[in-house]
Amino acid sequence: MKKCVGFSILILCLVIFSQSITYANTDSLSKALENVYSCVVVESSSGEILFANNESQIRQPASTTKIMTAIIALENADLKKVLTVSQSAVKEIGNGGTNASLIPGEKIVLEDALKLMLVASANDCANVIAENVFGNKEEFIRKMNEKAKEIGALNTTYTNPVGLDGTDGIQYSNQQTTALDLALITRYAMNIEEFRNIVSMQTVTVPPTNMHKEPRTFQNTNKLLNKTYEKFVITGVKTGYTVKAGKVLVSAAMNNEGTELISVVMGTDSNTVFNCTEALLRYGFAHPDLKEFSMRNKPYKILIGGRILSTEPIVTENSVLAPIKEVCQFLKINLDWISEDKTIILEKNGKYVHMNIGKEFAYINGSKIQLAHAPFIENGLSFVPLEPVAETFGYEIKTDSKCKTVEIDSLPFIENLSVSESVYYYCNSEPYEFKDIKIINDRVYIDINSIDSLLKDKIHLEFFPDSRIIYVGSHATYLEYKTEKYDHRIYVPLAALAKNLGIKIFWGPNTKTIHMYYQELSINTDRSVEDLVPEHFVYATVKNNTPLYPSIGASKASSYIKGGKVEIIRDKDYKWYYIKNNTISGWTKSEYLSIDTKFEKLEEKLYPSETEFFVNDYFKLSSPTNYLIWVDLKRQLINIFTRSENSWKLTRQIPCATGKNISPTIKGTFSINNNRGTWMPAGSNAWVKNYVGFYSSYFFHSVKVKRDGAIYDNTLGTVASAGCIRMPLEDSEWFSKNIPVNTTVFIR
C-alpha cells in the first residue's frame, strides 16, 4: 500500500513540475487572459506549444472556418478557374453575415474569390468556392472534414464552408473546433504559398465582372495585420465572429531570425482577443527554448570556412551524409565519378577514399573499412558519409544540433602528408594491386601473370610474345596493340585487353585512378584473327547464260551460269578463265566476263610472331623439307620459314608482285618442283631470272630484266605479273639456290 501511495505522489509531482515548466513566467499574461475562453501559441516549424489555456475546449470557429475552405480550394482547383455564383451561395450567409455583394449569375475567378473570402471575410465567396470546386457543396464539406483528420485536428467538425453555427440554424450546430486544432490547421495552411500571400494583404481589389462594372476594394478585418513590435511583426491570418463563438483571432507573426509563431485566441470581444494575441506573441518570442524549438524541424546546413553549402546534408544518429561534389569543390578535393558501377573516388595529397553507391563499406588508401551509412543518390546528387572523408584528409567536423549546423574546417589539421605518385587501380569497385607495370608509348602494360587473379580465374587466356593475338579459352582473337617482352616476361596492353573481354576502363583524371568494370566477361566476337589475314579474291561479272566447259577448248558446255558475280581462279593466256560461284565451277571464255581490275593492298603489317602463329597454329601448315613458304597476296609478301624443333620460324620476308586480276596467281597449297633455271623470256626484249616452278606454268622469279641484266620493270608491292610471283633480283638468286624441291608453298 505504501508503494502505491509513493508512486501516486511521484506522478503528481511530475505533473505539477511539468505544469510549472509549461506555464513559467506567465504573470504578464494573467490580465490578458481575462474574458478569454481559450488560447494557444505555438512555434510554427515544430508545432511546439509555448503557452496554452483551455486549448482543447470545444468552441465554434466562426469565420476562421475559411482557413480550411481555402486549403481545400487551393489543393484541388486552379486559381484561374471561373466560378459561377448561385442563388443559394448569396442567400446562405447567416444573419448579417459579411459578404462581397455577389449577384446570382456573376462570374468570378477562384483567386479573386479566395482574396475576398480571406481578406474581407466574404461569406458568399466561401459558398461560391464550395459549390464550384467539386461541383457540389456536400463533397467540398466532406473533403474539409477529411483534411481536418489528416492534419490532426481531431476535435474539429465542419457543416458549412462559411463558419455558421447553431445561432444560424440547427443544421449548423455541429460546426466546432478547438484553439489547438485551429493552430494545427493554420500551421498547415501557412505552408501553402498562395494562402500565405493572400492572408498578408492589407487590402484587396477585385477587377470588374459581368455583374460589377467597376473594380472594388475591400479592407482586411484584422487590425493587427502588419503591425510591427520590438521583436516581431504580425503577418496574418484570419478573424472570426458569431454570437455563439464570440470573437476569434488566428494570427501568424515572425521575428527577424525567421522564426514564426501562430496564436489562436477565442474571447468575448475584439479588444480582448487583440490584447491577448499581442501578449501571447510577446511571451512566445521571449520563450527561452524558442531557438531550440524553431530549429528542431529545420534542415542542417554545412559550413566550410564560413560559407554555407547550397545543398542540405542528411544527419543521422551516427553519421553526416553530405553532397560530396559540393564538399569537394569547397575543400579542393579531387573527385572522379565512374557511372558504370556508381563509384566515387576522392584524392588529395596522395591519399584516397573509394566509395560505392549503396555499399556500406569503403576503401581508404586500399584498406577496407565499414561505413555507418551507405552512400546514396537523391535528386541527382551523391550523398556520402563525411566522417571517413574528414579523417582521411585531415578535416575536423563539428555538429551543432541546436543551431543545426555541420562545420568543417577549411584547412586540414594533419601535417606532413605523404604524397604518392603511384596510380591506384580498381576492378569492379575493389582496389587491385598490379605487381609489375610498364608504361610503353603512354600505354599501361601489365604482367600476364597478374591477369588470372584480376579476372578471378573466370576465363583462361593465352598470350604470345610481341603479338596482338591471344587465345580466350579456345577462341583466337587479337588486340589493338601487341604484347611486349621484357626479361623473359610478357606484358599485355591493359586497355586493349579490356576492350576485347568486355571490360570497361575509365581513367579518373582528377584522382589519377584507373577503374575496370565488368558484369560478365565476354569475347569480342566482332574480332577474329582471320581479319588479320584476309584472303585475296578476284571477281568478275558474267553475262546471262554464260557457258561453263569441263576443259579448255571443249566444244560442248557442261552447264550454264545465269549471270552475276563469280570468282576468277586462274586464266589461260587471257582467253580462258576458270571461274566459280557458290554452286558450280568450270572454264569459260573471256568474252563472257567483265573482270574487276582494282587491287587494294593491305598495308597493315603482321608482327613476326603473328606470322608464325598463322603458319603454326591457325593454318597448321607442314612441309617435308626444312623450308616452308607462305605467299600473302593481300600484302604482296613472301614469308619464308625454317624448321625450328617442332615449329616454323620466320627467317625471311621478300616483297613481291603477283598476278594481275586479269591473270591472277593461283591460290592453294603447292610444292616446289624441279622446273627451275636462270633465264626465261618474258615478252619483247624482257626476261626474268632465277625461275623456280611450283605448279604448271606458275613460277617464282625475279622482276623483269633486260638481256644484259639491267632492270626492265622493277614493279613490286602490287599485282603486276601474268600469274607468276616476282621478287627482287638478289632475293630471286637466294631463293633459287636455297629453296629445295618439295618445299610447301601456301598461297592465299
In short:
The protein is α+β, with helices and mostly antiparallel strands and 748 residues long.
> Which percent bin holds the helix content?
10-25%
Low-confidence spans: 1-25, 413-422
- Tell me the number of strands: 51
Can you count the helices?
A: 17
Biggest sheet layout: 5 strands, antiparallel
CATH level-four homologous superfamily name of the largest domain: DD-peptidase/beta-lactamase superfamily
Strand order of the largest sheet: 2-1-9-8-7
What separation lies between the terminal Cα atoms? 112 Å
In percent terms, what proportion of residues is strand?
25-35%
**Overall 3D geometry?**
elongated
Core attributes:
single chain, 748 residues, 32% strand, Beta-lactamase, Copper Amine Oxidase, Chain A, domain 1, alpha+beta
Give me the secondary-structure topology.
Layout: H1 2-22, H2 27-30, E1 36-43, E2 49-53, H3 65-76, E3 82-84, H4 87-91, E4 107-109, H5 110-119, H6 123-133, H7 137-151, H8 179-189, H9 193-199, E5 203-206, E6 216-219, E7 233-242, E8 246-254, E9 260-267, H10 270-285, H11 290-296, E10 301-304, E11 307-308, E12 314-315, E13 320-323, H12 324-331, E14 334-338, E15 343-348, E16 351-356, E17 361-364, E18 367-370, E19 376-378, E20 381-385, H13 386-393, E21 397-400, E22 405-408, E23 424-427, E24 430-432, E25 437-440, E26 443-447, H14 451-454, E27 461-463, E28 469-472, E29 475-478, E30 484-486, E31 489-493, H15 494-501, E32 504-508, E33 513-517, E34 539-542, E35 546-548, E36 559-561, E37 564-572, E38 576-580, E39 585-589, E40 593-595, H16 608-618, E41 627-632, E42 637-644, E43 647-655, E44 668-671, E45 676-681, E46 687-695, E47 698-702, E48 704-705, E49 711-713, E50 725-727, H17 729-738, E51 744-747
Parallel strand pairs: 10-22, 23-33, 41-51, 47-50
Antiparallel strand pairs: 1-2, 1-9, 3-4, 5-6, 7-8, 8-9, 10-11, 12-13, 13-20, 14-15, 15-16, 16-17, 17-18, 19-20, 21-22, 23-24, 25-26, 26-31, 27-28, 28-29, 30-31, 32-33, 34-37, 34-40, 35-36, 37-38, 38-39, 41-42, 42-43, 44-51, 45-46, 46-47, 48-49
Helix pairs in contact: 3-5, 3-6, 3-7, 5-6, 6-7
